[in-house]
Specification:
By secondary structure, this protein is an alpha+beta fold. It is built from 25 helices and 11 strands.
C-alpha cells in the first residue's frame, strides 16, 4: 500500500478536449490547496503537470469499501452517476430548457421523467427523482417529495424560510455578526469599482424602524450578515462568459428581532466594471408593491444560488472531505496501527479517501456534476482554492472557535458550554455545542489515559512526526502559518484531535444530510441562477417580459430541467453513499 501526497492535478482532461483543461490546485501561491493521495498515473500529453484521467482511481487497499459498503455504493451512486444521469441527456435534449410552470416542477414528484431503456439494464420507463430508491428497487415511480414541499408548497416564498435555514439549515456556517458600519469591500477599487456597500442607513432604517435605529442595533449586536461579496466578485466577469449562468458579488443582511427570530433586511448584488460599463450595484429589500416584491424574489434566488454553491464547495467539500484527506495519509504513514491516536482516529476517517476519489472522478472534475449544476461553472474549484487561501485555518475549525470567530458567541464561564450565543435560538450551535462537549470529554478521557504528562507527548516520536507531516506536507501551502497548534501537552493533543473528529463527524453531518430536505424542491434552494436581475441594464423587451409575467422570468432564472435533475441526483445518491 502506498500513502503519499500529490496536488489536485487530476480534475481536468485536456487530452480529450482543450475545453476541459483546469488549473492544478495546490503547490502554488495562485492556487493553494490541501494535498490528496498520490495515484501514480502517467502525466498527460497536453499538460505534463496534470495526470492522465482514467476510469479507475487508486486508493490504498485499507481505504477500500467493505463488501457491504461496496454493494451499496455501486448500486446507488456509481450506477446513478454513470448510467442514469447520462440518460437524462437523451431525454432532456435541450440543456437550456427550463420548466414552463411551477406546476410542472411539482409534477416531478408525481409523474417522474420518462427515460429510454438503459444499456444492459432492465427497462425503467420512469426515472424517479429519488435516484437512490430507483436504483435500489427500480419500482419507485417519482421523486421522493421533500418534507417542506409536502407540508406547504408555497413556504419557499416566505421570508422566514429564507432566514431560518441560516441557523437551522444545511449551511449554518456562514452567518456572522456585523461588526463594522458602513460596510466596505477590501478589493481593489481600480479593478472592481467603488468599495462602499449599497447597505446604507437610509436603506436599512425603514426596515427596522419599529425596533430601533441602525446605531442602536449595532450597539445591541442585532445585525447579522452572510457576505460572499469579496469572494465572488473577482469571478463575475469570468463566469458571465459561460453560457447559461451568471454571477454577482453578494451579501444578505438580517436583523435579530426582540422575539429572537431573524428578519431579512436587504440583499446586495454587485457586478464589477466590465465590457466598458461601470460597476453595477443595487440593494433589494422586502416589498409589498408588485415590482418590488418580484425583484426581491429574484434577489433571493440569486443569493440562494450563491449560498448553495458556497455550501457545497466550501462548507461541505473543502472543510470536511478535502482537508481531512491529509490527516488520513499522515495517520497511515506515521502512526502504527497500534498507536492510541491511530486507533482513536480510524473510525472517523473510514471510507473518506475512497469517497473523495469518487468525487474527483465524477463530481468536482471538469464537466462534472458540480460544474454543470452550480453558478461558477468551470471556475468552481478555483473558487474553492481561493476560499482555502483566504478563509481556512485549522485553529478555527473547532466549533467554539468558529462561533467566536464569526462573533456569534463570546466566552462566558457562567453560560452553558462556556459560551454565550448572540442568537439564542441557533439550533446548529445549541445542538453542536452539546455534541462538542461530549466528544471533548470522551477524547480527553482517552488521551489522558495514555499521556500522563507533557514529557510523554514530547517524547512520542510517531505523534510528533504525524503532526509535522500534516502541517508541512498535507497542508504544505499553509505550513508557515503561525496559527498551527503545537503538540507539547496532553491538552494540545486533545484540542487537535477533537477538532479533527468534529470536522469528520458532526460538521460533516450538519452540512451533508439535510441537502435533500432543503434543496430537494429547487425553488427553495436553487443551485444556479441563469439570468441577470431584470433591472440590470434591461432591454425594453426584457423589462416588458418581466412586468407582464414575472413568474415566467423567475422560472427562466432557475436551473434548467437537466440541471435540476442532476442536482437532485447529487443530493440523493451521493448523500446516501457518503453516509459512511
Amino acid at each position: 500500500m502506498i500513502y503519499d501526497y500529490d496536488v489536485y492535478n487530476d480534475l481536468g482532461d485536456p487530452d480529450s478536449n482543450p475545453e476541459l483543461a483546469r488549473p492544478v490546485l495546490g503547490g502554488s501561491k495562485k492556487y493553494p490547496y490541501p494535498r490528496r493521495c498520490r495515484t501514480g498515473r502517467p502525466r498527460g500529453k497536453t499538460d505534463p503537470r496534470s495526470e492522465r484521467r482514467s476510469d479507475t482511481f487508486y486508493v490504498p487497499r485499507d481505504e477500500e469499501f467493505s463488501e457491504e459498503k461496496e454493494i451499496s455504493f455501486v448500486t446507488k451512486t456509481a450506477y446513478s452517476v454513470h448510467m442514469l444521469l447520462p440518460s437524462l441527456g437523451a431525454t432532456l435534449k435541450d440543456p437550456d430548457l427550463g420548466f414552463p410552470s411551477f406546476t410542472k416542477i411539482t409534477q416531478l414528484y408525481k409523474e417522474g421523467i420518462p427515460i429510454p431503456k438503459l444499456k444492459n439494464q432492465a427497462s425503467m420507463q420512469i426515472l424517479a427523482l429519488r435516484l437512490v430508491k430507483a436504483v435500489c428497487d427500480a419500482i419507485d415511480k417519482q421523486f421522493e417529495t421533500p418534507a417542506m414541499l409536502e407540508k406547504d408548497k408555497f413556504s419557499w416564498l416566505r421570508d422566514e424560510k429564507f432566514s431560518r435555514p441560516t441557523l437551522a439549515g444545511v449551511n449554518p456556517y456562514s452567518i456572522k455578526l456585523v461588526t463594522e458600519w458602513p460596510l466596505k469591500s477590501a478589493l481593489d477599487p481600480d479593478v472592481y469599482g467603488p468599495p462602499e456597500s449599497a447597505f446604507t442607513e437610509e436603506l436599512v432604517e425603514p426596515e427596522i424602524k419599529d425596533f430601533m435605529t441602525i446605531g442602536e442595533a449595532l450597539k445591541q449586536k442585532k445585525p447579522f450578515i452572510i457576505d460572499y461579496h469579496d469572494l465572488l466578485l473577482p469571478y463575475v466577469s469570468k463566469v458571465r462568459q459561460i453560457k447559461g449562468t451568471t454571477l454577482y458579488g453578494s451579501r444578505a443582511l438580517f436583523f435579530l428581532t426582540p422575539d429572537g427570530t431573524l428578519k431579512p433586511i436587504a440583499i446586495e448584488l454587485t457586478c464589477p466594471p466590465m465590457e466598458g460599463k461601470p460597476q453595477w450595484k443595487q440593494a433589494f429589500t422586502p416589498s409589498l408593491e408588485t415590482v418590488g416584491l418580484w425583484l426581491w424574489r429574484f434577489a433571493k434566488a440569486h443569493f440562494l444560488a450563491h449560498d448553495c454553491g458556497y455550501h457545497e464547495l466550501v462548507s461541505h467539500w473543502l472543510r470536511t472531505h478535502c482537508v481531512t484527506e491529509p490527516y488520513i495519509i499522515a495517520t497511515n504513514r506515521q502512526l502504527s496501527v497500534m498507536h492510541p491516536i491511530y486507533r482513536l482516529l480510524h473510525p472517523h476517517c473510514c471510507y473518506a479517501m475512497k469517497i473523495n476519489a469518487f468525487a474527483r472522478q465524477a463530481l468536482i472534475n471538469a464537466d462534472g456534476i458540480i460544474e454543470n449544476s452550480f453558478s461558477p461553472g468551470k471556475y468552481c474549484m478555483e473558487l474553492c482554492s481561493m476560499a482555502y487561501d483566504q478563509q481556512w485555518r485549522f485553529d478555527r475549525e473547532a466549533l467554539p472557535a468558529d462561533l467566536i470567530n464569526r462573533r456569534i458567541a463570546v466566552e462566558d464561564r457562567t453560560a452553558p458550554h462556556g459560551l454565550k450565543l448572540m442568537i439564542e435560538d441557533y439550533p446548529f450551535a445549541n445542538n453542536g455545542l452539546m455534541l462538542w462537549d461530549a466528544l471533548k470529554q470522551w477524547v480527553a478521557d482517552y488521551v489522558n489515559y495514555y499521556y500522563k504528562d507533557s514529557s510523554m507527548v514530547r517524547s512520542d516520536t510517531e505523534l510528533q512526526a504525524w503532526w509535522t507531516e500534516i502541517r508541512t506536507k498535507g497542508h504544505e501551502d499553509k505550513k508557515d502559518e503561525p496559527w498551527w497548534p503545537v503538540l507539547k501537552t496532553p491538552e494540545g493533543i486533545i484540542g487537535t484531535i477533537i477538532t479533527i473528529v468534529w470536522v469528520a463527524s458532526a460538521h460533516h453531518s450538519a452540512v451533508n444530510f439535510g441537502q435533500y430536505a432543503f434543496a430537494g424542491y429547487f425553488p427553495n434552494r436553487p443551485s444556479i441562477a441563469r439570468t441577470n436581475m431584470p433591472c440590470e441594464d434591461p432591454t425594453e423587451e426584457r423589462w416588458k417580459r418581466f412586468l407582464d409575467n414575472p413568474g415566467s422570468e423567475l422560472l427562466a432564472c432557475f436551473p434548467s430541467q437537466i440541471q435540476a435533475t442532476k442536482s437532485y441526483g447529487y443530493s440523493t445518491c451521493v448523500i446516501k453513499s457518503f453516509s459512511g
